[in-house]
## 1
Amino acid sequence: MKLEDLATAAAREAGQLLAKMQDSINPREKAPKDLVTEADVASQKRILEIISENRPDDFFLGEEDLTSEVDLPGLDQTVDSTVDLADLEYCWVIDPLDGTANYVHKLQTYSVSIALLNYGEPIVAAVYDPVLNDCYSATRGEGARVNGLPMQHSGVDELQRSLIAASFSAGVERGSPEVDRWVEMLYECQALRRLGSAALNLCYVAQGGLDGYWATSVKIWDIAAGVLIVREAGGTITSIDGGPLKIDEAKFIAAATEKLHKQMFDVLNRV
Ligand code: IPD
Ligand code: CA
Ligand code: CA
């Protein structure tokens, strides 16, 4: 099976499981304001089963800790965030439910995000939105698609005409640079959003629903798939300081065009 097809099949199946489970999820806080549910765990288990059946030698890095599970296929190939992904030939990076806070509150903006990394660089990606039944996917060098059809970013290159999104960490503090960047951008763009799924934000930049998106506190599993989808759709994405993006640091600016990216960079680096 083509790797992109495997990634999309796993994302779709896990996403449909999330949609089915939404009324029986038992939310709890794993850290203050940082929610997890039984559905996050069930989704990650299903993804592991599907992918490891096809790719038994690949590694897995998922957001949720499944080490207490027994007899779970793929568990022996699971690594944690301390591992250097650049040392692994193939590692699947999984966010089984991106947008858990939305999901718990039944705000229907959430997704499943799956990326395959080759020595630390994303080569295959799938992000699935089970509510709209939209599956975004990409393979390095082969473009990005939504539901199998090519995608196009907005082409917008003026910040004053741009719809921009940002992500905050779960426990953002008063007076933090995250808040200051938000305020600066609010003055400069046409409209600013915090939608609650980092993976979907990146897909929206690739598809044209958003013109730009930045984040400084997300994790590798939030963005590994979306970064490849933005790149393959022809968008621009760099680290927040303008250098090449380090995917495991996950502080970045993504934009439809280079010109817009430069304007976002100037505003965000006032802080
Ligand atoms: C969160 C979402 C959100 C971002 C948070 C992430 P989760 O992921 O991507 O947009 O602001 O930083 O933690 O916890 O719902 O998987
Ligand atoms: Ca996430
Ligand atoms: Ca998650």
## 2
Amino acid sequence: MTSDTGIPRHVAIVMDGNGRWAKRRYLPRVFGHKAGVDTLVKTVLACADRGIEHLTVFAFSSENWKRPTEEVSFLMGLVLVAVEKYLARLASRGVRIRMIGDRNQLTERLRQACDHAESSTAHNTRITLWVAFAYGGRWDIVQACRAAMRAGVKPEELDEATLGRYMSFGDAPDPDLLIRTGGEVRISNFLLWQAAYSELVFSDCLWPDFDEDELDKAIRAYADRDRRFGLVKATVPVAEQATGT
Ligand code: IPE
Ligand code: IPE
Ligand code: MG
């Protein structure tokens, strides 16, 4: 096994629990989504401070289109508001933004906002924030197959590495640590391909309440894991591999 610093290179988060957070405060669900954006911005910067290179967040799933129209419309509008309010701050702090998901399902205005967020941060190198919006793990696999076929890849040429290059993350490393807040213990069609060997951490914390302590708790849990990738080896937690203790 390669050595590891105990800090994951790539963290992925299912930001779940916004609706329940609002409900507990006797507020409409959308207040939870709004608070969730503030938590996201703080989390990106906290991840960058810890040397995490990639953060992928699940913001809107392929299945979330089935929610009530008002909630879906609010979430679409929230992207525009978030870009307006936070893009400059994230850009100035070295964050590169990539949007992944089915852009064909978005309005032209939203597509433009996504393009703008990506192009205006493309030069940044401190951390890459991958925002999975209108994203589903199954969608990603299907779009990768289609792209490979369009590119003329022959069936006998298609292997895992080749298909992987057509997936939304391109050459980025797979997530090392996948966190889900909100108490549910499921993947909900997130990174079905890329999470093959991610370490999973589930937290009861509702997403708007997620903070640096929760992040550090998840990183500590990750550092204590023994990643074997199917191999047989002595059980040495990630953190001990790093220090050689
Ligand atoms: C996650 O929070 C955000 C989105 C799915 C857009 P939820 O809206 O699922 O909140 P809960 O799970 O109902 O509390
Ligand atoms: C997963 O949460 C999607 C996002 C956080 C964007 P959901 O709330 O949609 O997942 P389920 O319905 O509980 O599985
Ligand atoms: Mg939910």
